[in-house]
Design brief:
about 375 residues, Molybdopterin biosynthesis moea protein, domain 2, five-stranded antiparallel sheet
């Protein structure tokens, strides 16, 4: 399958992956042929991109580090509980703990997979889906750091609850379809303290979980908020959540900008380690993230173009590619596969965006 913006969808294209909202409802099922009406409705619902079938990778399934139905169920439970907190200012941690336990169990069972976390989400559901994604990403990093189950579950719970303070931020700011003003950003920044205050008052929530909400916007160089902490003043858990938080935010479509590609996010995070993120944690984090996810259209240094069909954890920069165009941009006589780990002199030089309009050979 291939991810494509709803604004670029065409009638006749086929949905390649079920589209859910945060309530767990299926908006469109895999295999549905798109019509003008379907496309218009997806845009109205604030869905910015979907997966469509790609004839060159029909046989390829994107690996799931956590079962999609379990992930959707977790998002729904989290959304229901967040909205309850917004209405009553009361946190019942039991359901969050149950989600955290499931996330840890699922990720531990699939610890040898890479994360191809490029999901589809509506902007109104962003906070809920983002929180589940951050929890998943953080647990993978925790595994890489050698954490046992107890620490992983604490980390997973912190990931789920790190943005709970956003429930007290006005909706017009939280879901604003444009860049925030300085005044609005100051209000948004209050979510760290608001979340901490809610969590620390709950006797069933550990102070470490509360501090993940409090510190996930702190930065090692002291440039973060709300307290401008530096270096070892920031807990390792919060540094993990910070990296997962920034990565998922970068690759996500928002009303005011398109998400960037994973390899671009990798470059951004690497640059941020100079001043704002922990380099050692980032190195561990990217052992589990597919920089070139399955389905990516790429060009190698010989000029040939193909689709990524498999990425192994041991060789994240050297995926297996299905070559479909030769160096001159012509359809190859016969589609073939190339494993870059077996070709030391060949490597990826470009990942194509959908708007670059690569001309595919006829199916």
């Amino acid at each position: 399958m291939q991810r494509i913006s709803t604004s670029n969808l065409q009638p006749g294209q086929v949905i390649g992956r079920d589209i859910f909202n945060a309530d767990g409802d299926v908006l469109l099922r895999w295999g549905i042929v798109l019509t003008e009406k379907y496309i218009k409705r997806l845009i109205e619902l604030g869905i910015y991109s979907v997966y469509i079938e790609n004839p060159y990778v029909k046989d390829i399934i994107i690996p799931e580090p956590i079962n999609e139905r379990i992930r959707i169920k977790a998002i729904k439970i989290l959304k229901d509980n967040f909205l309850r907190i917004k209405a009553s200012n009361i946190l019942d941690v039991r359901e969050f703990s149950a989600i955290a336990n499931v996330v840890v169990d699922e990720v531990c069972a699939n610890r040898n997979l890479l994360i191809h976390l490029t999901d589809v989400r509506a902007y109104d559901d962003y906070t809920f889906i983002h929180s589940v994604n951050v929890s998943i990403l953080a647990v993978f990093a925790g595994i890489g750091l050698g954490y046992g189950k107890t620490k992983l579950k604490e980390l997973a719970l912190g990931g789920l609850l790190h943005d709970v303070g956003k429930m007290f931020v006005p909706k017009e700011i939280l879901n604003k379809p444009a860049k925030l003003t300085e005044a609005e950003m100051e209000i948004m920044k209050e979510h760290s303290l608001l979340g901490f205050e809610l969590l620390r008052k709950n006797p069933e929530v550990s102070l470490l979980v509360a501090h993940m909400a409090f510190q996930h916007h702190e930065r090692p160089n002291g440039s973060g908020y709300p307290r401008g902490l530096q270096g070892d003043e920031i807990h390792e858990y919060a540094n993990i959540i910070a990296i997962a938080d920034v990565y998922d935010a970068l690759i996500s479509d928002r009303p005011y900008r398109r998400g960037i590609l994973p390899h671009e996010a990798y470059e951004v995070l690497l640059e941020l380690t100079r001043t704002q993120l922990d380099l050692n944690i980032l190195k561990v984090f990217f052992k589990y993230v597919a920089i070139f996810p399955v389905g990516s259209l790429v060009q190698i240094n010989t000029g040939e173009i193909g689709v990524v069909i498999e990425v192994r954890q041991q060789f994240p920069l050297k995926p297996q590619i299905r070559i479909i165009l030769d160096a001159k941009g012509h359809a190859v006589d016969k589609v073939y596969e190339m494993n870059l780990k077996d070709t030391p002199t060949q490597f990826i030089i470009k990942v194509f965006r959908e708007e670059e309009r690569i001309i595919f050979p006829p199916v």
